Amino acid sequence: MRALFTAATGMTAQQTRMDSIANNLANVNTTGFKRAHAEFQDLFYETLRAPGAPSADGTALPSGVQIGHGVQLASVVRTFAQGERTRTDRPLDLAIDGPGFLQVQKPGGETLYTVAGALQLDADGNIVTPEGYPIVPAITVPSDAQDMTILRDGTVSVLQPGSTAPTQIGQIQLARFVNPSGLRAMGNNLYAPSGASGDPETGNPDQNGFGALSQGFLESSNVNVAEELVRLIMAQRGFEMNSRVITAGDEMMQTVGALAR
């Protein structure tokens, strides 16, 4: 009975959907997290009678007989809509107002990308992520710096003792992609480019379509709890309906078995 196997694919699909929703809800308070949702597509069809085939009396059938074999996962798409801004007043907290990713470098030299701007200083004064990865281009803050300002265009300046005017120490650059949904999530709020995302295009913030930087703010997760709970209920109901199909199919097979006896 193909209905048993078809319903099983439906249960697997809804389980995957619930996994995606669970991950979204788990990261509802993760800085810079981007929600994802599962998309599905139907499986192949068994054609018992082709549409348009000639009938016994020579007419063309207006519709055929095709039996589907269930559903499969097509993709899990990440939505890069911006989340709400949270004010922190920390000088190294940055939110990107518009398109763009901060660039960070792993110890092996690989460049990764993030929208989570909770930056810090390491022991040498380098601006790094919470994992200790320096931003690209690298910026080192002098040990005697008394105040630091990061402008909307990414210009980083500090005020040093004995000086009344700030000194520029670096320029933060952003990167963007033709298809950000094609980026590979690496964990720790980091993304890596892929063949689907395209190559990164870099530039200064607040110029040529890049987003502007907001110092003292962080971007919150873009997960909408109410929407995720609605999706969770729909996934649960879909799972239950498919399980009932399996139960009904089992009962039908028991009835056939009883007739044979």
Provide a descriptive summary of the structure in words.
This protein is an alpha+beta fold. It has 2 domains: 2-80 and 223-260, no CATH class; 85-219, no CATH class. It is built from 2 helices and 20 strands. Strands 8-7-15-18 form a 4-stranded antiparallel beta sheet, with no helix packed on it. The longest helix is centred in the C-terminal third of the chain and has 36 residues, at 225-260. The mean pLDDT is 92.
Strand order of the largest sheet: 8-7-15-18
The level of helicity is 10-25%
Shape: elongated
Q: Total helix count?
A: 2
The portion of residues forming beta strands comes to 25-35%
Overall pLDDT level: 92
Oligomeric category: single chain
Name the helix and strand elements from N-terminus to C-terminus, one letter apiece. Answer: HEEEEEEEEEEEEEEEEEEEEH
Distance between the termini: 19 Å
Characterize the biggest β-sheet: 4 strands, antiparallel
Structural class: alpha+beta
Radius of gyration: 27 Å
Number of domains: 2
SSE layout:
Layout: H1 2-26, E1 36-42, E2 45-49, E3 65-68, E4 71-78, E5 85-87, E6 93-97, E7 101-105, E8 111-114, E9 117-118, E10 120-121, E11 127-128, E12 147-150, E13 155-159, E14 167-171, E15 174-176, E16 184-187, E17 190-192, E18 201-203, E19 212-215, E20 217-219, H2 225-260
Antiparallel strand pairs: 1-4, 2-3, 5-20, 6-9, 6-19, 7-8, 7-15, 10-11, 12-13, 13-14, 15-18, 16-17
Helix pairs in contact: 1-2
Summarize the structure.
This protein has 261 residues and is α+β, with helices and mostly antiparallel strands.
